[in-house]
Amino acid sequence: MVEILLQLTKQSGFYQLTWQEAVMIGIGLLLIYLAIFKQAEPLLLLPIGFGCILVNLPMTGLMSSHPVGLFYFLYKYGVSTEIFPLLIFMGVGAMTDFGPLIANPWTILLGAAAQFGVFLALITSMLIGFNLKEAASIAIIGGADGPTSIYTAVKLAPQLLGAIAVAAYTYMSLVPIIQPPIMRWLTTKKERTVVMEQLRPVSKIEKILFPIVVTILISLLFPAVAPLIGMLMLGNLFKESGVVDRLAHTSANELINIVTIMLATTVGGTMRAESFITLKTLEIIGLGIIAFGGSTMGGVLLGKLYYVLSGGKINPLIGSAGVSAVPMAARVSQKVGQEENPGNFLLMHAMGPNVAGVIGTAVVAGIMITMLLH
Question: What is the pLDDT of residue 166?
Answer without folding.
Answer: 87
